[in-house]
Amino acid sequence: MTQNTLFYAQLENRTEPVHVVLSRTELFQRIPDDWYIVITDIKDSTTSVEKGFSEIVNLIATGSIIAALNIASKHVIDVPFFFGGDGATILIPSILLPEIMEALTLHKENIQKEFDIYLKVGNVPVSHVYKNNLELKIAKASINELLTIPIVLGNGLHFAEKLIKSRDKVLDRSYEKETHLDLDGMECRWNKISPPENSNEVVSLLVNAVSESKQASIFQDILEKTDSIYGSLHNRNPISIPKLKLNFNYQKIRTELKAGKKFGVINFLKLWVMGVLGKYFYLPSPIGKKYLNELTQLSDILVIDGRINMVISGTAKQRQLLTEYLDDLEENELIIYGIHVSKTSIMSCYVRNRNEKHIHFVDGGSSGYTRAAKVLKEKRQNTQFSL
């Protein structure tokens, strides 16, 4: 195993607030040339969302990350990943590429067969980003005691995403190994989640900086402003324990099985029994309480992948203050942003171990990220923004 393979694992984990990390660009390290950017993206996801398939769209994106993470975990390699609502981005060393691409191709084929939804899958060498004079630097930051997130500066990931969307290349399976699709740990057990007390809406927000070189300072200012309006990440988290409700009906189980495992009587009964037992597990027992407290801390509500992606709970008044600030930045041609407001959030989960390892991918209701991305795309067409 080369030094580059362990690049992400060996990055120092910063404990300062994210806006402080962004103020110190010397902390960001260039991603190795021999790494790869792996992208999955649901084609025409807006149509799927408008047909009422929001939770399936999120589950497909979550499955992309889980398929890759289960392979990386097997090799004991830590990799950064970014949930995008209707797709995912994973940065990986070259040693993992064949196996992960094969698994994601199996995921793509299964999704097409089970849901008639088309998932684009592709990869771009990091070296190709640098050849196109784009930046791709990364740091690691602790959001709280349990959750560490990658922070990326530069337009490299969005350049790769644009490439994959423009050319959906069929994977050459001549190097196919004994890979199978392992989505162990994928769960979709929770009902749509209402905002916490004293909040009445959920905002899904995407922000691009127009100038790549000014990303760090602009993102720092936006996060500081968001903190001043809404409070800390903890205070604006749309996931709260009192609002969590298990939804384990036939359709929910069927969707989860179709997305990741074979749908059959035995598997159905296994999940159904787990759901019944889960109701007792989540009652105020020491183990259940610990898991639920961890769940709120391990909710992925801030993603920085060369763009700010946030899911925020709050009030209409708070949103108005934030959008006035963002409008001003936009009028001065510093950013473009997309926003969607809903009354709930939705959550899909990766639970390797309820006592130790789990992460929860959060999106605004009705696929807030996808709808915000549509707004962003429409604005892009009227600006000089190239990525």
Task: Please describe the structure with a list of short key phrases separated by commas or semicolons.
eight-stranded mixed sheet; 12 helices; alpha+beta; 387 residues; 23% strand; four-stranded antiparallel sheet
Descriptive account of the structure:
The chain is of the alpha+beta class and 387 residues long. The chain has one domain. It is 40% helix and 23% strand. It has helices at 18-23, 45-50, 54-74, 97-115, 126-131, 156-166, 215-230, 250-260, 265-281, 286-297, 316-331, 368-380, and strands at residues 13-14, 29-30, 35-42, 81-83, 87-93, 119-125, 137-142, 148-153, 186-187, 201-209, 299-300, 302-305, 308-314, 335-342, 345-353, 357-364. The strands form 3 sheets. Strands 1, 2, 7, 8, 10, 12, 13 and 14 form an 8-stranded mixed beta sheet that branches. Helix 3 crosses helix 8. The longest helix has 21 residues, at 54-74. It is globular and about 50 Å long. The model has no long low-confidence stretch (mean pLDDT 88).
